[in-house]
Amino acid sequence: MKEVLLGKTLAELQEIALQNGLPAYAGRQLAQWLYQKRVTDIAAMTNLSKAARATLTERYEVGRTAPVEAFTSRDGTRKYLFPTRVADKYIEAVMIPQYEDGSEGGIARATVCVSSQIGCKMNCRFCMTGRGGFHGHLSAAEILSQLLSIDEADQLTNAVFMGMGEPLDNWPEVSRALEAITADWGLAWSPKRVTLSTIGVIPKLKLFLEESRCHLAVSLHNPFPQERAELMPVQRTWTLQDVLALIRQYDFTGQRRVSFEYTMFAGVNDTPRHADALARLLRGLPCRVNLIRFHAIPDSPLHTSSPEAIAAFQTRLQRAGITTTLRASRGEDIFAACGLLAGKGLKKNTHNP
Predict the structure, then answer these.
(1) Is there a domain that residue 353 lies in?
(2) I need a surface site. Which of 140, 153, 169, 221 has the fewest CB within 10 A?
(3) 237: Cβ–Cβ under 8 A, 6 or more apart, which residues?
(4) pLDDT tens across 173-186, in order?
(5) Is residue 35 located within the same domain as residue 177?
(6) Is 338 labeled as catalytic in the residue annotation?
(7) What domain range includes position 196?
(8) What's the pTM value of the predicted model, to 2 decimals?
(9) Which of these is catalytic: 120, 124, 287, 338?
């Protein structure tokens, strides 16, 4: 099997160049072809000699993966289905357009939501991804393919690691992808354009906070430990209190941001008691709370909070000094909204709009 070049660091590409009889500077040329010119075939790397390209082709491949299906929502959101090396298992990436004037006259911002694992181990009660079990980690190449291989690749302004899987559970490959996205030899994006979402895998969270300058989003969903554990079993391993204690050791007063995701469940976490506890928990931490309307999943006893309850919750947090926004639901009709990604085409879903 050929070795994949996509996802390699500059130092690794330089080593590959030397191992194949090329000068070290050819490693930077390889990086330019992979990440800036975005070729899919070594034969297209025309500033390398034909002999060099032939030698590399014998041993390596670019490793880009193309989506096998794409679905477009009524609101312009697009969901892409990507194959994986696991038979009959797919992952999804979602492109979310945001229009300058609220209409579809022109995209002002295009955000891609990428997956990091095939399935998920965390088994949060409100998420479809975990229901299918865990089937493996994505490689850095498979992660980067989600940015590079969608139709809107050249329009992308932001990326969020909020798709299938827990990014910090796959930290070795996710960190490689983040480096390729933000390094000057890679896509050269500002870290401010990238957000990683986690439920709080503390050992790897510390590495992320030390090694990356990308934004952080933490899935919180309930301020009370026992109630959170009922929604998110990870609370029994890495508590929210320990996660917050770690986060408070880092500076979020500058350009780097931390936010907290809070999905609203009727009668479960949307009361004044919950809002007040959440405000106390986050007091003094420069942050934002993103309220998310729960998107119903089959056979779940959970229901979304009413618009009135969500508005009251938001007002209570804002009065306590917590910046709070209500995240717009996008792509729900194609199962592309928060919590609905399951690695299936629409024909395999329980609902086909």
Answers:
(1) no
(2) 153
(3) none
(4) 999 999 999 999 99
(5) no
(6) yes
(7) 69-348
(8) 0.92
(9) 338
